[in-house]
Specification:
It is a single chain. By secondary structure, the protein is an alpha+beta fold. It is built from 2 helices and 5 strands.
Length: 114
């Protein structure tokens, strides 16, 4: 189900390579989900230059800024996203910070909270 959610667009297009470089996976523009991400200071993810899909130090700084929370805001709702640390396996802005969510980062196969 998590894979289907990712394929359907849940999660940003930000990727992290093995050298800890951050970039957008698209060379031009942003994904629909990227347009929903905002930090607790009100700065949108899409305010960071796309940099044509190349490694982007500004994007890395935005994603790892101290004392910032990140949210997906599709309408009047606000969903808190998982904070750093991020990695290639757990990219930024792709998991929800909610113990009842299928899209929480630390959910393992077969986990069931009782």
């Amino acid at each position: 189900m998590r894979g289907i959610a990712r394929i359907m667009g849940l999660g940003s297009s930000v990727k992290i390579d093995g050298s800890d470089n951050y970039s957008f996976s698209q060379k031009k523009g942003y994904s629909v989900f990227d347009n929903l991400v905002v930090n607790s200071s009100g700065q949108k993810l899409t305010s960071v230059s796309n940099n044509e899909g190349r490694p982007n130090a500004t994007l890395k700084a935005y994603a790892n800024e101290d004392s910032q929370n990140f949210y997906a805001e599709p309408s009047s709702e606000r969903y808190k996203l998982q904070p750093p640390p991020y990695s290639p396996e757990y990219p930024s802005f792709s998991f929800v910070e909610d113990n009842n969510s299928l899209m929480r980062r630390d959910l393992q196969n077969g986990d069931k909270d009782y």
